[in-house]
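Support reply, case 0932

Customer input (verbatim):
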Amino acid sequence: MPFATNTRPLGQDWLDQIFRAKAAREGGVVRRKLADIDREIGRAALELEVRRRGFHMIECGDHAVVICSKEPIRIVC
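Our regenerated output:
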């Protein structure tokens, strides 16, 4: 009997989990360590998904912050 294979892209479950978070669903922010992003899917893949959703992403220190809103943002200071 052949083994079932996972046809989902590597890290897709991890990416889906980010945007299923309550904060993401309610237009809030989610934060992940850059090392975790690099290990699971890569920064380019996360950026692509953030752009696809019309959200915003900021990198600061060793974290990425995703603002799960399509509204314009203003950096105050």
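We compared this against your earlier run and they match. Two observations from our side: The chain has one domain: 12-67. The mean pLDDT is 91. Please reopen the case if you see a mismatch on your end.
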